[in-house]
Amino acid sequence: MADKWKIGDKGSNFDQYNDHVSEAWYSIWLENAAKNYYASKKAKTLTKLIGSERGKPCVVVASGPSLDREIGKLKDFQGVILCSDSALSACLAHGVRPDYIVSIDSGKDGPGRFKGLPLKGLKLITNTSIDPGVLDIWKHNDVYMFNLNDAKHQYFHTDILSVYRRFPSVQNVGCVGGSCIALGILMGCRPVYLIGFDLGFTDEKYAHTKYRYHGGFINRLLGRSWTPIKVDHKLKIMAEDLGELHGVKCRQVDRFYREGILGYANQINTMGAWYYYWDDGKIMQQVVQASRQVPIINCTGGGILKELSRWSFPEVIDYYEKHPALLEGQK
After folding, report:
1. How far apart are CA 318 and CA 226, in angstroms?
2. Is the peptide bond before 228 cis (omega within 30 degrees of 0)?
3. What is the rounded distance in angstroms from the CA atom of residue 145 to the CA atom of residue 130?
4. Where are the beta strands (DSSP E) in 20-63?
5. Is 216 exposed, middle or buried (0-12, 13-18, 19+ CB in 10 A)?
């Protein structure tokens, strides 16, 4: 098991640290995959979606702090909407029903991102190692499944494929937003626009605003169906800066978020202890590399991903209002 980072550590061997974290996750992935076997029989294969949106523009809705700036304009976008799981409540609260919701993380907090939300008619894209509670919540919806793939780890390129042969493999890119981009490309979307893809603390906020749903006719009548969930952003960021967000002293990560240094921290709760999973810039590098083949345009109002072409999101809306034929894609 990997040692915990301490404040001031240089962290020179991120690859080795990643390997330790992956080993700790192995039993969780395996247990989830085993529990999901029967539920997966009702799911559709992601293969059905490959090329299904060919030539249509899509927007990836990630969950960074700047999403609060663009979310009000999202309902005017008439292309394909791919939404990360943690951004779903914000979309629904603003009258946006995404075409696809993407959930990748295998941790036990996954089901909580959907609990109590009005999911009727929505479509989920997820992987075979997702927490079983997610599939239970989505059991009445269309669910498309795939296997995550990472050639470095035996679980992904041998173990899981021996059980889930009917599902295709998609390269693991380290975060839900990155997976949304990969899925949009597989569907044939062109271009791919990004909003909320900060990978940082834009406007000194820890995250975008999430919402709580209150069902019932009276709440709808009075316009009280959605209320924002209050977060002490300063306290959250301060805890992250000190590496003490979950009571474990780790190395400082704030400068990686703010300055765009090649590194990405993803908190992982494993075996009762917290670790930071450093992806060593591969998320950003893979997005930039993919943009050389498929137009990926960053409409995020801030953040550290600066290598991509940039448009403002209102410019995107205006462009397709003037060129509606481009929304139809290729037959």
Report:
1. 28
2. no
3. 10
4. 44-45, 58-61
5. exposed
Prediction pTM value: 0.83
- Residue type for 44, please? K
In the chain, where does DSSP find H-type helix?
A: 14-35, 37-40, 67-70, 88-93, 132-137, 154, 160-163, 176-186, 217-221, 233-242, 254-259, 282-290, 313-322
Bridge partners, 183 (sequence order): none
Strands (E), the chain: 44-45, 58-61, 80-84, 100-103, 123-127, 142-149, 169-171, 192-195, 211-213, 226-228, 265-270, 273-278, 296-298, 309-310
Q: How many CB atoms lie within 10 A of CB 96?
A: 20
Question: Please, which residues bridge with residue 298 across strands?
Answer: 194, 310
Write out the two tokens for 101.
């919701």
Query: CA-to-CA distance for 57 and 230, rounded, in angstroms?
Result: 33
User: Which pLDDT value is given to residue 279?
Assistant: 45
Query: Pairing mode, if any, of strands 226-228 and 211-213?
Result: antiparallel
- Residue 219 has what DSSP assignment? H
What six digits make up the tokens of 80? 């394909």
262-300 in b/e form (b: 16+ CB < 10 A) is ebbbeebebeeebbbbbbbbbbbebbeebbeeeebbbbb
Residues forming beta bridges with residue 228, ordered by sequence position: 211
Q: Within 10 A of 166 (CB to CB), how many other CB atoms are there?
A: 12
Helices (H), 166-232: 176-186, 217-221
Tell me the H-state helices in 173-232.
176-186, 217-221
Mean pLDDT per 10-residue segment, the chain (331 residues): 40 52 76 93 95 95 92 95 96 96 91 94 96 96 90 69 85 82 92 89 82 82 82 66 42 44 34 34 60 85 79 95 88 61
Distances (CA, A) of 234 to 200, 260, 275, 302: 14, 20, 22, 18
Structure tokens at 137: 């919540």
